[in-house]
Amino acid sequence: MPTCIETEFTRTLFTTPSFDFDSHSEELKALVDELYCFRDNFWIDYKKKQTKPEITSQLQNVDFEQIKSQCLKLKQENILNRMLVLTTPPKKRNLSVKRELDFSNNQYSYSFDPTLSQKQKSFYHYIRGKLFNIFGDYNVNAELDLSKSIKYDPLNTDAWNSMGEVYWKKGDLEHAKLCFEGGLREKKTVEGLLNLAMILRVINKGKVELYKGQIEKSLTLSKEAVEMNIEEKNSWYGLGSSYLKKFFDLTRNSKDLMQALTAYNKAIHHYLENYESCFKDLEHSLELDPGGNSRYLLNSISNYLQNFYRGYLKSKEINYDNFKSTLNKITKKNFLNFKNLKKINDLDLGINVDSFISLKLIKEFSEPVNVHRSFICVDLLNSLNTICLTVYDVKYEALTVGDEMLIGNPNLLHINFNFNNKLFNFKSIRADIPLYVSVNEKKLIENDILFTTIGIEIRAE
After folding, report:
1. Rg (CA), the chain
2. Record's InterPro entries (predicted)?
3. Which H helix or E strand runs over 75?
4. Per-residue pLDDT at 126
5. Helix (H), strand (E), coil (C) string for 402-429
6. Domain range holding 313?
7. Which residues of the chain, if any, have pLDDT below 50?
8. Is residue 176 domain-shared with residue 314, that is, in the same domain?
9. pLDDT at 198
């Protein structure tokens, strides 16, 4: 991989970026977001390749971390080069020269267009700082750019949070804490709350009274993060971690340990649609912490499930014979090559490996409390059959009522339990791997997919 990039300006006609800041900023932000998504989901492509026998042997001795690092560096350099094109001064400002960007020595500097506003300069420095902060190690250029971003716009919350991460990597935890606090002063975000809660769990451990207060504040911040977005799994993980630190470092009170387990379990059971276990954990959490948000979450999930169940029962009373004239055409046209295409009644409980099911979405019952989309569907092979469907990690605009779906390896669940004298008894298909889903004859592409991740690292704090 080359250690530097040369950019020729003499053939490019530049316009002042400030005249078109919105389009430039959106493009750069999208590129950086895609890069972080690539980093966090790098393993997916290689995991798919490992299932192919012809190349499995070739991958056995591959250092994936090294490949990942090389790919990230190349993509990083390409985006930085794109920034150079978008943000340098117009051609009249003596641009008929080559500029050399030497990444091997961490030397990368050029002046942005002087006609940019303070906030625009802040944004570009933030984007460049975030690019340099893509790796796990401290990067001096990230610190320089992010400090300039904050200088130009002290209200840039994203820059404050990124700067805190840089200081953390540098080992300067006190300055990291100040940065996270600075970001929260300007705007309260889930990311900012979790970052501050996390650092409060690791600093000043030798000062007992101070550390005790920090753990309590960490709990408060984690609860706020959960309240801001109860479907964010990282918020629940942060809350569980706070209770866990309180138990091991301070109280040794089993109540705190149970709170930690409950916080982790709530996220896991809810995601897996183990509603009976989810409700039990929420009720237990309510007993341990009556002032928390468990009651709201319990009521929200219960109301969602009741509406979903009623919708399913109502769908069984509707005659879908009007679909029959097109069902056979659809089936023959779209699914002729799928030998293992099955009807709903032919599915087994659990994951039906190497099988497919074809559905038409007829009504949506999604709720903000959930991490998935919820639909009532008609079986395209038998219009007399309807079923519930939950779809994960697919962007809102990629799926809508009326769409026809082909789902590979469908996971059939049986929801059957009582809660508050209400019976829930229905079957549901869970589609949680977008790679196995086609919509209206087209496979989902990367832009249709939401890459949901949670990172858990065990370290000595």
Report:
1. 26
2. TPR-like_helical_dom_sf (IPR011990), TPR_rpt (IPR019734), TTC5_OB (IPR032076), TTC5_OB_sf (IPR038645)
3. helix 64-87
4. 92
5. CCEEEEECCEEEEEEEEECCEEEEEEEE
6. 301-448
7. 1-19, 44-60, 91-107, 325-326, 328-336, 453-461
8. no
9. 83
| 40 is a domain residue | yes
CA-CA-CA-CA torsion sign (276, 281, 287, 290): negative
The pLDDT, as a whole number, for residue 83 is 74
Tokens of 394: 């697919």
Residues 26 and 174 in one domain: yes
Collapsing DSSP states into helix, strand and coil, what is residue 101? Answer: strand
Length of the chain: 461
Of the chain, the end-to-end C-alpha distance in Å amounts to 37
Q: Which of 187, 206, 226 is the last residue of a domain?
A: 187
Please give the single-letter amino acid code of residue 234: N
- What confidence score (pLDDT) does residue 394 get? 81
Q: What is the pLDDT of residues 120-140, one digit of tens each?
A: 889 989 999 999 998 888 999
Per-residue pLDDT tens digits for 228-245: 776 666 666 666 666 666
In sequence order, which residues have a C-beta less than 8 Å from that of residue 79 and are 6 or more positions away? 28, 31, 32, 35, 131
213 Cβ contact partners less than 8 Å away, ≥ 6 residues apart = none
Q: Say if strands 382-392 and 372-379 run parallel, antiparallel, or are unpaired.
A: antiparallel
Q: How many CB atoms lie within 10 A of CB 69?
A: 17
